[in-house]
């Protein structure tokens, strides 16, 4: 960008008025700022959800730069097996300004900006490179910061330096390889901030000190006679000083500029911490939404207090519990407690079925009449205990054999009688068979009726 003679004279005339005015906060510049006043600064921080990358877009007046920090795992140097890498690279393209169209000129200026940032951040040990080691001698993290100048509106040194340190503060890397769920920040010991001072020599004989101003615009840079850059941290420690050529300045000017830079660095450090904390909260919410596959919203306490659940109606709870624990119908297909009439009807029905079944048995008439008399009454007495009849065999050895009669109602298998027991009386066997069947069929009826009588 070329500066006309009228514009140059106007800028110099506005600075000459500062000699007669000792108030540094008065309006003495063409854009309405004081000599030691920054332009408005905006910061936009972003973090990649899938890659290890963070971005910082800084806008300082009309100057816009984009710093991109990325990380990858590489092998370390053999002589430094436990140290990672930190590299800076400044890219100047014709998109930022027309003066960057000449490759040779903008390459030299880009290299100069890269060296300033490296001295301000890497050489002052702001980042612990040993904390980037994964396995000593095998793998370490290589952090690369690339700064793209999107629009050159003046004071690229401060813009590039502040954007670089902000992007490093916002960067996150995995705690260990293969564990992408846990991200940790870089190990930054302190936050270095660069402040540049520019000088304009108004006296042709160079007897008086030049006019000092900070954050020059691209038009003001056309009339500058020199500059100096200080790098301070929040602990009031001087990290780096950079000055190449230009007008000579006295020690008083150097010390005065250093004190001003120290105060400005403290203010910018607090502002950077606030902005990175806000951006980190937003990035965490976005990562949660990305991992869950849906929008993640944290409901506040006030929002939850608005929608209170309705109270539960427990008026019918006691009645429901009584029905639930009713032992009369619980886990039973029929009621367990019946009246006497129902019990007598069930017993009569059982006796009738037994009488009908006894007609198919080959028993004597006396036994059949005895069974009919038994079925006429509900009260059944316990049958007498039957003794087993043992028979003697014709052989030399005596064997005790018990004959079990298998009826059509019995589920047990029939045991064949011994051949020596064929002389047992048939009439006696039929009676035993009938009494065994009656005993099995009516024993539980006797117990049930007896319990009913006791009640």
UniProtKB/TrEMBL annotation:
Q: Which GO terms describe its cellular component?
A: cytoplasmic exosome (RNase complex); nuclear exosome (RNase complex)
Spans annotated as Disordered: 381-432
Superkingdom of this protein's organism: Eukaryota
Which GO biological process categories is it annotated with? exonucleolytic trimming to generate mature 3'-end of 5.8S rRNA from tricistronic rRNA transcript (SSU-rRNA, 5.8S rRNA, LSU-rRNA); nuclear mRNA surveillance; nuclear polyadenylation-dependent rRNA catabolic process; rRNA catabolic process; TRAMP-dependent tRNA surveillance pathway; U1 snRNA 3'-end processing; U4 snRNA 3'-end processing; U5 snRNA 3'-end processing
A single Gene Ontology molecular function, please? mRNA 3'-UTR AU-rich region binding
Family annotation (InterPro entries): ExoRNase_PH_dom1 (IPR001247), ExoRNase_PH_dom2 (IPR015847), ExoRNase_PH_dom2_sf (IPR036345), Exosome_comp_Rrp42_subfam (IPR050590), PNPase/RNase_PH_dom_sf (IPR027408), Ribosomal_Su5_D2-typ_SF (IPR020568), Rrp45 (IPR033100)
- Which keywords accompany this UniProt record? Cytoplasm, Nucleus, RNA-binding
One Pfam annotation, family name? RNase_PH_C
**Ranges where the Exoribonuclease phosphorolytic domain occurs:** 37-174, 190-263
Query: Matching CDD domains, A to Z?
Result: RNase_PH_RRP45
Task: Please state where this protein is localized.
Answer: Cytoplasm; Nucleus
Q: Which family does it belong to?
A: Belongs to the RNase PH family.
Name of the featured protein: Uncharacterized protein
Source species of the chain: Aphanomyces euteiches
């Amino acid at each position: 960008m070329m500066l006309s003679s009228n514009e140059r004279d106007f800028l110099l005339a506005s600075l000459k008025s500062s000699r007669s005015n000792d108030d540094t906060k008065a309006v003495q510049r063409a854009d309405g700022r004081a000599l030691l006043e920054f332009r408005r600064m905006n910061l936009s921080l972003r973090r990649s959800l899938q890659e290890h990358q963070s971005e910082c877009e800084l806008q300082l007046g009309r100057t816009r730069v984009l710093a991109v920090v990325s990380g990858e795992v590489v092998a370390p140097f053999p002589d430094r097996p436990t140290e990672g890498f930190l590299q800076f690279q400044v890219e100047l393209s014709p998109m930022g300004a027309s003066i960057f169209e000449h490759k040779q000129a903008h390459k030299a200026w880009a290299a100069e900006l890269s060296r300033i940032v490296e001295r301000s951040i890497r050489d002052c040990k702001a980042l612990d490179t040993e904390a980037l080691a994964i396995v000593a001698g095998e793998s370490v993290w290589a952090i690369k910061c690339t700064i793209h100048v999107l629009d050159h509106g003046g004071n690229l040194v401060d813009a590039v330096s502040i954007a670089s340190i902000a992007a490093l503060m916002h960067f996150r890397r995995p705690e260990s390889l293969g564990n992408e769920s846990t991200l940790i920040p870089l190990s930054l010991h302190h936050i270095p901030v660069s402040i540049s001072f520019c000088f304009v020599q108004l006296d042709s004989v160079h007897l008086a000190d030049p006019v000092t101003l900070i954050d020059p615009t691209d038009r003001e840079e056309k009339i500058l006679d020199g500059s100096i850059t200080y790098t301070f941290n929040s602990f009031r420690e001087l990290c780096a000083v950079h000055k190449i050529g230009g007008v000579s300045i006295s020690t008083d000017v150097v010390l005065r500029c250093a004190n001003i830079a120290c105060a400005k660095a403290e203010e910018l450090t607090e502002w950077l911490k606030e902005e990175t904390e806000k951006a980190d909260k937003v990035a965490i919410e976005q990562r949660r939404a990305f991992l869950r596959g849906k929008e993640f919203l944290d409901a506040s306490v006030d929002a939850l207090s608005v929608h209170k659940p309705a109270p539960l109606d427990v008026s019918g709870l006691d009645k429901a519990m009584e029905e639930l624990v009713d032992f009369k119908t619980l886990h039973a297909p029929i009621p367990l407690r019946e009246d006497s009439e129902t019990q007598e009807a069930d017993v009569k029905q059982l006796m009738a079925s037994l009488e009908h079944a006894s007609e198919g048995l080959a028993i004597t008439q006396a036994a059949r009449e005895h069974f009919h008399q038994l079925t006429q009454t509900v009260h059944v007495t316990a049958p007498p205990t039957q003794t087993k009849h043992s028979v003697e065999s014709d052989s030399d050895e005596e064997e005790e054999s018990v004959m079990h009669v298998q009826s059509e109602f019995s589920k047990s298998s029939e045991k064949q009688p011994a051949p020596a027991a064929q002389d047992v009386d048939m009439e006696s066997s039929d009676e035993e068979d009938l009494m065994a069947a009656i005993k099995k069929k009516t024993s539980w009826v006797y117990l049930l009726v007896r319990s009913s009588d006791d009640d």
